[in-house]
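ugh finaly. both done.
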Amino acid sequence: MKRGIFISIEGPDGSGKSTQISNIKKFFEDKNLEIVFTREPGGTAIGDRIREILLDNNCKEMDYMTEAMLYAASRAQHVSQVIKPALAAGKIVICDRFVDSSMAYQGYGRRLGESVSVINSYAVAGCMPDVTFLMKLDPGIGKRRVSSRNQEDRLESEKVDFHQEVYNGYLQLEKDNPDRIFGIDASRGIEEIRDDIYKKLEEVLSGVIK
């Protein structure tokens, strides 16, 4: 494999991403392929410090553009330090959220529009996922799941209306990027969702590994 495979997982809070990320890891481990699992915001020492600020409930006065630029700053470091080197080494990169999160949360949820795309064009530096799994779940259901946890972070604590706008953004991104974004009905059983993901991963591998 000359170049690795870049996979991102997206979806509303509470959509079951963590469970399916574990399944994706197992899929590649069973094939003895080397994986690098990472997340956003974060993934690097610098990114993790930015993450603390972004998700801190004591930073509720944060300007929306500040928020968008902090996410992009974390991403730029992440791509440069972790993702691009791993792909160049032929590894499988599995990322919990990537640029689509910024487009959905800041572009649509915060209504910053195309400015988010412009900012992140510099952050990703041409490095985009080969496939993005979008976990599609009614934001009201996801919100209830997240609310049952001990504490919500700054974005999770936003009202349902905000999360609905984010979800609408994800659906539009799916329509705009049909060759990359693979939508999944996340209201179904875990095994059924896993099987759909595995089928798509087999397709991705068949086009990469000769």
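ok and the 2nd:
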Amino acid sequence: MSTIIYPSPIFGPVHSRRLGISLGINLMPSDGKVCTFDCIYCECGLNHEHRPALPRPTRKEVADALEAKLKEMSQEGALPDVLTFAGNGEPTAHPSFAEIIDDTITLRNRFCPKAKVSVLSNATMIGRKNVREALMKVENNIQKLDTVSIEYIRRVDRPTSRAYNVEKVVENLKLFNGHVIIQTMFLHGCGADNMSEVYVGPWIKALKKIAPESVMIYTIDRETPIEGLKKASREELNAIRDRVIAEGIPCSASY
């Protein structure tokens, strides 16, 4: 199946189903994928299929490239709605992530003060205080939690560390004191169906503990590296969305 390897450190702008016109910031190498998960549904492919030869961009390279792109977009009169940390792997794993967030906020304030800063993360690095502190500074701190079943996570999200502990992740998500958006992928096929009550019920209980500002649920939108995966239906997503809303937590569904 085809996969997407994004340019680095800046890509787009692209239209996001959930965020609007988004200018991407990719803190991973431009020739491959570096991630603390190896999700079977990842649009960037599986980790072992895209080993990079290039290094991660440096803090200065990210700042210089972002400044140049924002100058260009400002001159064209087409500024982004959001600056989104995403791309070929887990952005918070970059050793200079916290400093890069500070640089990005400074540049945002200078060129496009109405734009929000978003981070799409798999929550594997939020045990680090400096990462959490940096995420508290952005408008959209978006953290993945597909389920609270460790068996499912090891089979579908496939964390690269054997020390991964979903219960600890939930406890770390609580440390944001509500300044967090939970993002969850729902899908069918290849043993990846997480829409039955055995998954949804405990996941909702975890959401109540975390008390996020909102929840984003979605399904696959592009080709996946593992064949046989299928989209969740609009009806299935709406039913889960409505259950979350019934608990007093804002929730949106993207199809």
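summary for the 2nd one i guess: The first strand starts at residue 10 and ends at 16.
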